Amino acid sequence: MAEDVKRRYHAPRRAEQAGATRSAVLAAARELFVARGYRATTVADIAAHAGVALDTVYATVGRKPGLLRELVETSISGTDRAVPAEERDYVRRIRAAATAREKLGVYADAVAAIGQRHAPVFLALRDAAATDADCAGLRKEIAERRAANMLLFAADLRATGELRADLSDQEVADIVWSMNAAEYYVLLVHERGWSPQRFGAWLADAWARLLLSS
C-alpha cells in the first residue's frame, strides 16, 4: 500500500519535471533559431543553452525539424502544445459572434496576438525552408492548413448574409489568408513600426471594407 501511495506521489512530480524540461528545450531552441538561424544552430547548441544533456533533447522533443515544428505549433496555439483550430478559444468566440463584423474583429485581434509570438518563429522557418526539405514541407503544410481553415471561416461569414455577393467563398478565404500571414505582420509591425494593437484594428477595418456588403 505504501509503495502504491509513493508511486502516485512521484508520478505528478515526474510529469511536472518533464514538462519543465520540455519548456526549457523549446525556449532555448526558439532563442537560438531566431537569433542565429535554423541552419547555424545545432541540437548540441540547444541542449547546452537549455542546460540539459543532448539525449534529453532528442527524448523530449526530437530532432531539429521536430523542434522547429513544435515551436511553430506552440507559437500559433499560445500554449505548450499544438491545439486544433476548432479547439482554440478565439475560434469558439468567432463562431459564437452574431455578425460578420464581430467575427472579423475577433479574428483580427487573434491574428495580431498570434503574430507577436509567431512572426519571429515564422521568419526562422522561412529561412530554413530555403535549404532544408523538412522545413520546406512544414512551411507548405502550415500554409495549406491555414487556407483550409480560411474556407471554413468564409463559410461562417457567408452564413451571416453580410458578405459581398460578388465574392466567392474561395476569394474571401484567399483575401483573409494573404492578410493573416506572418509576412504581412512582419511588414507592418517589424518593418514599418506599427504596434500589434494598431495592426489588429487595421485588419478588422480593412476586412470589413473589403468583404462586407455594407
What does the secondary structure layout of this molecule look like, with pairings?
Layout: H1 2-36, H2 43-50, H3 54-60, H4 64-77, H5 89-96, H6 100-129, H7 133-158, H8 169-179, H9 182-191, H10 196-211
Word description of this protein:
There is one protein chain. By secondary structure, the protein is mainly alpha-helical. The protein has 2 domains: 62 residues, Orthogonal Bundle (Arc Repressor Mutant, subunit A); 146 residues, Tetracycline Repressor, domain 2, CATH 1.10.357. The protein is built from 10 helices and no strands. Helix 2 packs across helix 3 and helix 6 packs across helix 9. The N and C termini lie far apart (70 Å). The model has no long low-confidence stretch (mean pLDDT 91).
The description of the largest β-sheet is:
none
Helical content band = over 70%
CATH class of the largest domain: Mainly Alpha
**How many domain units?**
2
Keywords:
214 residues; mainly alpha; Arc Repressor Mutant, subunit A; Tetracycline Repressor, domain 2; 10 helices; elongated
Give the gist of this structure.
By secondary structure, this protein is an all-alpha fold.
